Amino acid sequence: MTAEPRAILSMNAFSGEAGDDPLLARRLANMGAAAVLFYDKPVEMVSGQGAWMTDRSGATYLDFYNNVPSLGHCHGAVVEAVRDQIGRLNINSRYMVEIVDRYMEALKATLPSDLSNVVLSCTGSEANDLALRLAEVWTGRRGFVVTQTAYHGNTAATTEISPSAYKKGGGSPRIRTVPAPDPAVYGEDLAGGFAKAVAEAAADLEASGHGFAGMIWDSIFSSDGVHADPQGFLKAAEGAVHAAGGLLIADEVQPGFGRTGVMWGFERHGLAPDIVTTGKPMGNGFPMAGTMTRPEILSRFVEEFGYFNTFGANPVAAAAGLAVVETLRSEGLIARCAAAGATLKAELEALAARDPRIAAVRGAGLFLGVSLGREDAPDGALVRAVLAGLGRRRVLIGAAGRYGETLKLRPPLILSDAEIDHFVQALADTLAETP
Ligand SMILES: Cc1ncc(COP(=O)(O)O)c(C=O)c1O
């Protein structure tokens, strides 16, 4: 059992020697200390289809971890769209190419109408980096509030707002953290308690001289351990952000594009964010990201800085993104995700009723967290053992939470009932063999 906070990249990470695996030796030589691989015995994958990946030996793995290919690995619509556009033209956004505008219009049709300006980029980190700069220029202040185990990216600025990325030392002076919205911390009045913590953190930034520019959250609180309910509880904290004069940035990199059973995570809470950022599943594997905001916020920023992104808004990304938005609609994937998520959650709750080591099953749609241990004694060691046991059964999942105490499940939205049963049986078998 561990009560030590864990850096997010250390969870389920390989940390040994290459041994007699030649590809592992090459990877360690090529990427050096920055090589981050999953599992004690890292796996070499060669292909993927739907909810499954195949390794070098031909063995197949059920993928309950990777939320980037959220329509399923190698979805035909995306593959075809990318193939077609890259054989036609790929160029930067200083030329007009119609598919780019078609994509932005399709994306905007899913968002609140006031967020009518779109800046496309390539990674969630870039999207959030720009969001921070927009909020700083708009408010004239530099301080941000984030949750205690948040992760928002890898640039200098987004690392500052990602407490879970720090392995040593304590973060940036212009950042204040609040505990994630967990009833174990805030008690029965989750909405009020979280909003009060946000208001106090914002006031502290004001008092410190940094000023309060805004708050950024991922509304499913993915790296914080998955906190989704009750729906609407974030509304009070949104009020606290605005009352303190800050902007609310909804980081939809994790919950966006249907993952929680609605198109956007902030929608579940009835929020009206000032800035929305997206990434990961946006291109179903094609790297693309976006920062959407009101025209006046972007105009104010552009008065002070030039902004150009060579690969953002490229036509191939637009083709991939358009295929994603159209497929979500044509295959009814958001409703399917809500239904599959409800089935999976019910089966996990049934398992929890039989196994007292499961402290809680949380989440929405197909973004679920299963905490192990007790509420007052999170069991990160058990999570690591379960991850390894599922890995041996060729079922891939992740970990989250301040102490790495939560199993993080994010299967593709096309998940079938048979795949749900396969997963739950594998988890039950793994728990049964784990002391
Ligand atoms: C909530 C959230 N925001 C932003 C990012 C950064 O996205 P990227 O890795 O594409 O830069 C991540 C990545 O894990 C994330 O989980």
Automatic annotation (TrEMBL):
Q: Which InterPro entries match?
A: Aminotrans_3, Aminotrans_3_PPA_site, PyrdxlP-dep_Trfase, PyrdxlP-dep_Trfase_major, PyrdxlP-dep_Trfase_small
- Give one Pfam family: Aminotran_3
What GO annotations for molecular function exist for this entry?
Answer: pyridoxal phosphate binding; transaminase activity
Cofactor dependence is on: pyridoxal 5'-phosphate
Is Cell inner membrane found in the keyword set?
A: no
- Keywords, A to Z? Aminotransferase, Pyridoxal phosphate, Transferase
Family note: Belongs to the class-III pyridoxal-phosphate-dependent aminotransferase family.
Q: What is this protein called?
A: 4-aminobutyrate aminotransferase
Q: What species is this protein from? A: Albimonas pacifica
